[in-house]
Prior knowledge:
Double Stranded RNA Binding Domain, 12 strands, binds zinc ion, 4 helices, alpha+beta, 223 residues, four-stranded antiparallel sheet
Amino acid sequence: MPDVRCTNCKEVFEIDSLEISANYDCPHCGKNIKFTSELDRWVKKVYQNQIEPDFLLLKSRSSDALVGIVIGMGIVLFGLVMLYAWMFIFTIPAGLFCLWWGFSCMFTESTIREVFSVYDKEKSRNIVFVYENGELVESSQHEIIVEERCRIVCYSFWEGGGDTGSTVWMTYITQKTGAIRLVCDGFSKAKQFADYLGITYDSKGSHGKLNSLPDDSHTWTEW
Ligand SMILES: [Zn+2]
C-alpha cells in the first residue's frame, strides 16, 4: 500500500490507493486528512481554468430547476383551488399544506450537473469528469495510444420504444487492445478530434432502431 505524509503532524501512514480520492484518519494524530488523487488534482485545475485541456470533447451543463418550478406551480395551483372551493373544513388545512409544499418545491435547491470529456496530450489520456453544484462527484481516465492505424468510429442508433426512445451517439477510438468509447459531443466534434490527432474519421451513419444496426456492426471498432 502506498504511503502519504500527514499534512498536520508530518508523520507517514499508509493509504488504500493513490488512484482514489478519499478521507483518512491519521493514525498518529487522529486528524482527518483529505487525500486527492493525481487525476482529481488535474481535473480540479481544468475546472478552475488553471489548465487548458488540449482538446475538449464535451462540456455540458444541465439543471433540474425547471422541473421543480413546474411541479411546484402545479401543487400551488391545486392548493388555491382547494382553498377557493372549500366545502368541508379539511380543505382549508389541505389547501394551505399544498401552498407550503408547492412553494418549497419551487424554491428547493436544484442540482446543476456539469459533464466534461477532455483529452490530455501530455499523458495521452481521455478524462471524463462530472461536477454537481460545483463539487467533483465522478472522474475516470483512459489511456489512448495514438498510432497511424487508429480510427475514430462514430454511429448513432435509436434506443427504446417508438416515441419514448432517444438517439444514442457512439464514438470509439480503435486500439490494439480493444476500442475505447469516448464521451463526445456528436459527429462533428468526433471528426474534429480525429483531425486533431491526425487519424482517420470513420462515420457509420445513423440507424433508426437498435435492431436495424447491420449484422457486421460489431466489426466496426475492430483494430
Ligand atoms: Zn497526523
